Amino acid sequence: MKRIIAFVIAACMSVSLVACGGNNQQGTTSDVQTSGNVKSELVIGSTSDLNADMMTGWTNLSPNKQIKSLINEDGASTVVFTKDGTFEVNPSVTEKLEIIETEDGTKTFKITLVDGLKWSDGSPITAKDYVFATLLSSSPEFGALDADNFTGQDYVGFEEFNEGKTKTFKGVNLIDEKTFSLTAKADKFPFYYEITLASVTPYPMSVIAPEVEITDDGNGATLSDNFTTELLQKTINDPKTGYRYNPQVTSGPYKFVSFDISSNQAILEINENFCGTYDGVKPSIQKLIFKKVTDATQMDELKAGSVGLISGVSGGTAINAGLDIVDQGAAAYTSYPRAGYGKIIFACNHGPTQFEAVRQAIAYCLDRDEFAKEYSGGFAKVVDGYYGLSQWEYRDNKDAIADKLTHYTLNLEKAEELLVNDGWTLNKDGKEFVKGTDDVRYKKVDGKLMPLVIEWANTPNNPVSDLISRKLPESMAKVGMKLNATTVEFGVLIQNLQQTGGEQKYHMFNLATGFATQSAVWYYYNKDLKTYGGAYNQAFISDEQLHNISQEMRAVPAGDNAAWSAKWMELQERWNQLVPELPLYSDEYHEFFTPHLKNYTPDGLWSVEKAIVYASIGE
Question: How far, CA to CA in Å, does 479 sit from each of 364, 412, 440, 444?
Answer without folding.
Answer: 10, 7, 8, 18
